[in-house]
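pinging the channel bc i need a second pair of eyes. not urgent but kinda urgent?? the chain im working w is below, pasted from the shared doc
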Amino acid sequence: MTSSDETVFDTTVAEGLRGRVGTWLELGAAGPGRRVAIVAARFNGGITLRLLEGALGALDGAGVAREDVTVAWAPGAFELPFAAKALIQTGGTDAVIALGAVIRGETGHYDFVAGQCAQGLQAVQLETGVPVVFGVLTTDTVAQALVRSRDDDANKGREAALTALEMVALVRHTRRT
């Protein structure tokens, strides 16, 4: 799901561009042998559980073994970066998926939590070299969060899981070359 038809990745255009470069890395989201950790926020947990269902469904569909998936719960989105880093430091994690929902309220709390969560997760992946995928919804309303966490292909937890697998493939490929 994108914001408009004009922002959709056009595979026909991409194929035309592929011949204009020496190396084109688009590796897909294979799952077998991948070890994935999911850090999930309990705050707005009804939404997070829906995102987790989408992520687990995508990992299962990609062939990630159940024993290669770890789920850790954090109190809220603000704590997700610390939890992600802790899981990476234990070793054996190829990617971390951060799931949660920050829903705008009547105070400025939303701006601080959403921004610090995103910055923190980005810092963890850049510091550790392990992909940390931002699967945290930042919405104005509960209704918007419910739409983005439906049990369908547009579930943002599902998208985050597929992104994590694609990033693992990219990292592994670039480290081999």
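so The CA atoms of residues 102 and 138 lie 5 Å apart. and The chain has a mean pLDDT of 92. — does that match what u expected or am i reading it wrong
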